[in-house]
Amino acid sequence: MALSLRQLIGAEENVPSLPMIFHHLNEAVNNARSSMREIAEIISTDQSLSARLLKLVNSVFFGFPSRIETISHAATIIGIQQLRDMALATTIIQMFRGIPAELLDAKAFWRHSIACGIAARVLASYHQEPNVERFFVAGLLHDIGHLIIYRRNAGQAKEALVRCAQSGELLYQVERQMMGFDHADVGGLLLNHWRLPQSLEEAAKFHHRPSRAPRFPLESGVIHVADLIANALQMGSSGERFVPPLDARAWEGLRLSVSILSPTIQQVEQQFANTVSLFLEDDKR
Amino acid sequence: MGTINIENIEPGMVLAGDAKARNGRVLLRAGKTITEKHIETFKAWGVTEADVEGITKEDLAASAAAQADPKLFEKAERMTRARFRHTDPNHPFVDELQRLCTFRALKMLNGAGS
Question: In sequence order, what are the beta bridge partners of B28?
Answer without folding.
Answer: B19
